[in-house]
Specification:
The structure is a homotetramer. Chain A is of the alpha/beta class. Chain A has eleven helices and eleven strands. The N and C termini of chain A lie far apart (62 Å). At the A-B interface, helix 1, helix 5, helix 6, helix 9 and helix 11 of A face helix 1, helix 5, helix 6, helix 9 and helix 11 of B. Chains A, B, C, D: Its EC number is 2.7.1.11.
Chain lengths: 328, 328, 328, 328
């Protein structure tokens, strides 16, 4: 029989993403609503190892729903990858009477959590928080929608200057292994080409497409490039290659970088975080464990962590087709 | 046998919404891609009646994806509700060799389109463009996501001053018949109470809830009120009533009004508009008619206009529960 | 001889304005830099009366420079208008060993501060923080630039929908006694007419101007109305009057309200707050008193509170002429 | 005697900046108001050389006041640096009956204009439009205020993630020869250090300052680096150097790049552009020439182009002191 959950821990781990504070708030408020205690561990797994935590009540999380970053801070912990590290963490959790942990983060976080739960019999529930949207079992991760809007806002600005100068811009966006950000922000920003890790268009196709664009009367162009694009060149090499082969283009590069992780979360991300985390608390109270909550077809669902970790979500290839059509 | 579509008309009608320009762009670009002609009618049905249209090619819609409003303008036409009005429109469409119409708007637009199609054998395809999200057959209408973000951006600002002054604010948002905007922006903005047309909480419950909030240590509160809330008082009367009954509250009112219709569309709305409108053109070319395209469970789907008009989408009542939990 | 200042108090009072947190931060950091102590009184004068204050060190004000509102909260205190109220405040200040007070607020705040300083021999230094820009002795008050941008952002959105529908919009902005916000945001937003308290254009002129606009080919118009405009009608009556006399206009009203007080401060307001408050601390340490710091011609200057309170800054009438020229 | 001005040309040249459209609009509207004709040359001097221009009336510039970029486009023209190029331009201007030119741009633009005016007896009037604020004779150039806000908006986002991860960020901003952007955005963003071309702090001082920051309890830090900083290392080398010497810091780099040139102009920039350009037209009509309009101490003033070109504005060194105090 599962023991009654009286105290829940929450932490944020891995790369931070907008909406993590809305998620923390929802965990804390749901605990307050169901009259269980809540503690927040600082700096992800490291705070569990160090026993670094704070008591959280409904009022502790006021006025944070709209803030970027995470008030619990985040980190990647090497020590947690060791058995000893995880033992220290377990000892601190027991000392602190924490009956279950809610882990907000990406797949690295969930992998650590799964191992920890198996070794130390402490239930964990995962909440997908990452801008990359690369978690199986949810159509949307917390922070992804905000990151998309940060990107298109930046590209709108770049387009102002691109079209004032008849220029070609290469804009690198985040997404080392997954093209979600590039693909959707590329369509949203009206990019002429989108290069993603999942699809190698090849350099020839890129040149052809840019030439076609120009012949069709376009005077400026934007190419969105995912960090991990498969074309085998980084964004600066890419721009140099194009400049060499299409000398009439004044090609420029912008690497958007870490602005994509920050900013006030969108309504979508705040509602997503709220819904997922209320459910996470309810499932924890219900004695469930080793699962991840996700949003599938507008409904909150739970999936076993193991399943979530075994697969990768796939991009919608139809969006590449849409992008082609719209950049005609 | 359906005749081959060689020329497609597009218009925007009813209340304008952010993303309509992205939608127009997608129609025009998809036409260019499939090498059919495209014309845009000005001011919705009125432009059809008056024969007021412009030729549109791929370059006509450059740099509009990020603009609020609609470059084709919009209006509500009384004349189109008359048989004579619709006859004039049909005559102009035939004169202009328009083989099919794509109508971007809400249910008033679709109703007019359905009637027109039946009377004059001109295929129409509807695209849901309205901030209200009150169209059956799509989980999201174009403009809704942007409106939500406009609302939470405004409420975040109001919360700055509310919490600096320990005040209670009533914020009226759009949604005469549907509480979608109020409900989702209310959760996103962290509102203490949300009043919507679909649910009459009653004045007593509101007072109780505000008192409970205060006793729990909250020093400021936000109440989101849908235009069409069922409590039987407008937002000013509501504030007066609360002031009278809870005199320690310094209650203020803000009516957000038409800022909710404008602004640069979010990435979500741009991608939504792009996907729906490419599909609308493809369906038109395929000879289909009297349907509306929509986004259901992340997939573009078509539904008969008749069906779309017969029902109303329902709000997710679970969100009211989430809101209650989070405002603890 | 003035006694050495070892402990400085700071508070925010009156209507809150964006940049007040940047101002508080600058006071606190300047105190830390000069190695004097700093305490913050909550809720303006009320916190002085109640002895409600917190110790502030350099780290207390981290990550607040970008936040709207005021972490010290603000209020208007009736009790401080009484001799007894001010005596309580003086007693608490002495108890707390506060040697000088920095008051961030508007003229109401300064008037209270001046009286208090005269009665109780506690030096006060004023910092102009209000969105209204109606303080003599400074070209800019903290929060004014942010409020202007909030207004034009809102009016840009309204213009989207106004020009999509060929509409006339009346937009009421803050400024009961001074037209600074209306005049500058009106020019910035490209308004067709601007109504301010300092100038009564008369209703006839407004009608003539709107008719001329329409004849010149304008299809939509924005009129910015200051709360305290002198035309003798409120914004709703104004719209009704115009509708009646110029029936071809579909006149709408938006009252921007309290969103104008919130939001993340602009760079201008953050730099202004930083410069003024460092100076305020330095002047306090220098033994000065009963003065206000201000920005005149890009230089920080001090002016006697008495002088600042005796006059009102005047709007630049040339801007009305500019507005006329640009709305041609 | 100067001949009467009946037709004015306008162009934008050099790097584009937000507010150039507001400037164009003000030129066009002022011409309409004074009933003189106006033509716009495309792509700066190149359009003059090529005779590429459009007629502009009051309605041509509707709804552009809020757009980034420049509808007349911009370029740097090599051909205009040749005598032949300028002769072609003069011929086209005479053909087009242009009596005076208003040049919106930076010092490169003004230098070209001055030469051209001397050689061909066509009056030119300069309007300072550049984000760099590096023009003598005006306290503010058009676009500078917007660029500052773009920078602090980006740095606010970076700070979210910096403080979530206890990181050190180097953020490179524009300003090859002038530290205006770095200095003011650095104060506005609450940066710990600001590196500008005008002042070589030296690497030792930077390391000391960062160490001191850390010892004082700061867990994250932002260093703003001007493109043209004098420390002799680019921003990536700088980060590497710090990482090597202060290994506890996880130093990251973000190069903001061209987003700083785009975006909807702030109210400040719109009003500035409006005031300067109305004046520019009025001075042209008054027969003046070879001058630049600028904003000095909140008043529009004219200065001889020669004078404007001979000097460089200097940064306010007191701001470096303020920055030091505030990063305590």
């Amino acid at each position: 029989m599962t023991k009654r959950i009286k105290r829940i821990g929450v932490m944020t781990s891995g790369g931070d993403s907008p909406g993590m504070n809305a998620a923390i708030r929802a965990v804390v408020r749901a605990c307050a609503y169901y009259r269980v205690e809540c503690v927040g561990f600082m700096m992800g797994f490291q705070g569990m190892i160090d026993g670094d935590y704070i008591e959280l009540n409904a009022r502790s999380v006021r006025n944070i729903i709209n803030l970027g970053g995470t008030v619990l801070k985040s980190a990647r912990s090497k020590e947690f990858r060791t058995k000893e590290g995880r033992e220290k963490a377990a000892a601190h959790l027991k000392e602190a009477n924490v009956d279950a942990m809610i882990l907000i983060g990406g797949d690295g976080t969930f992998r650590g959590g799964q191992l920890f739960s198996a070794e130390h019999d402490i239930p964990v529930i995962g909440v997908p928080g990452t801008i990359d949207n690369d978690i199986f079992g949810t159509h949307y991760t917390i922070g992804y929608d905000t990151a998309l809007n940060t990107v298109i806002d930046a590209v709108d600005k770049i387009r102002d200057t691109a079209s004032s100068h008849n220029r070609l811009f290469f804009v690198e966006v985040m997404g080392r292994d997954a093209g979600f950000i590039a693909l959707n922000s590329g369509i949203g920003a009206g990019a002429e080409e989108i290069l993603i890790p999942e699809e190698d268009l090849g350099l020839d196709r890129l040149l052809n497409s840019l030439e076609r664009s120009r012949r069709s009367g376009k005077t400026s162009s934007i190419v969105i490039v995912s960090e991990g694009d498969k074309i085998g060149k980084n964004v600066f090499e890419l721009a140099a290659y194009v400049k060499e082969n299409l000398p009439y283009y004044d090609a420029k590069v912008t690497v958007l970088g870490h602005i994509q992780r920050g900013g006030s979360p969108t309504c979508f991300d705040r509602v997503l975080a709220s819904r997922l985390c209320v459910k996470a608390v309810e499932l924890a109270l219900d004695g469930q464990r080793d699962i991840m909550v996700g949003m599938m077809n507008n409904e909150v669902q739970a999936i076993e962590l193991e399943k979530a970790l075994k697969s990768k979500p796939t991009i919608n290839k139809d969006l590449l087709r849409i992008s082609d059509i719209l950049s005609v």
